[in-house]
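Colleagues,

Please find the record for the two-part complex below.
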Amino acid sequence: MSNTVVLISILIMALVTALIRFIPFFVFGRKKTPAYIEYLGKVLPAAVMGMLVVYCLKDMRFDEYVNFVPGLVGVILTVIVQALKRNPIYSILAGTIIYMILLRVI
Amino acid sequence: MNKIRKAFVKTIPVMAGYLVLGLGFGIVLQNHGYGVFYALIMSVLIYAGSMQFMAINLITAGAGMITVALTTLMVNARHLFYGISMVDKYKDTKPYKPYIIFALTDETYSLVCSDDSLDKKDFFYISLFDHIYWITGSVLGALVGELVPFDFAGVDFALTALFVSIVTDQWIQNKDHMPAIIGILSSVVCLIIFGGANFLIPSMVVITVLLSLLDIIRKRGKANE
């Protein structure tokens, strides 16, 4: 691709991404928020965070230990430390370190 | 100053993830023959992690403009969700509103969606810091990435752990666990049916339908009491 075409492609990606992020605010943000959107605003965060966790783990394979044990142990340890300490710094550090170690030793 | 400190502490987990992922993006971009300039404008203007990795494929494959636009739409469609659930919270956030909407990534959303103690300045600083981490990581990656001797494999798990820690916190805080259960189960079922590349959009549809049904059923239950 020529540089101009690459730059135009980047601009298109930037515009479409921004458009997606702005659309809900244009559609629902004008007057008082509709009750249905207010309801979704309350329940979506918990549902969407669950979806994002699944999204992050989507490449897990159960064929060999190395393809699922690090991720599984990492997630479980993160949950335990977070539930006990209630501080994301500790839980994320613990989960990530055990994940990196298991990735190398299995 | 206090606000800046608060935002910094809150964004430390994202800093770890974004610096490493950004570094990875910069290195891959550099390997495909596009250097610091491209890393910079892509991370400033597009600012969407998985889309930017996809962008490298599109650019090197010489994809047409319509393909570029449609792929962006598919990869980033989940951001519609974030907007819908932030319409109310971001209502009175002038003059930061345009920027914090533009910068609403997965990770920034995860920090702002469930914390009720945040005001518009917090939203702004959190969004700005995350953006800076991402830009710094990708520019560094394009610049010196290959020279870094440390083996970073697996550091990007920090982002997974960030989301897991938030789900755990929300689970402990919320009395109502149905939204979380619906979110996780719908996504797992859709992942099994549609596969890793295509399951997000069906998941969002199923989640919206089930949450709406839940609302209707509960309202009926109350009306019958």
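Chain A has a mean pLDDT of 89.

Comments are welcome before we finalize the supplementary table.
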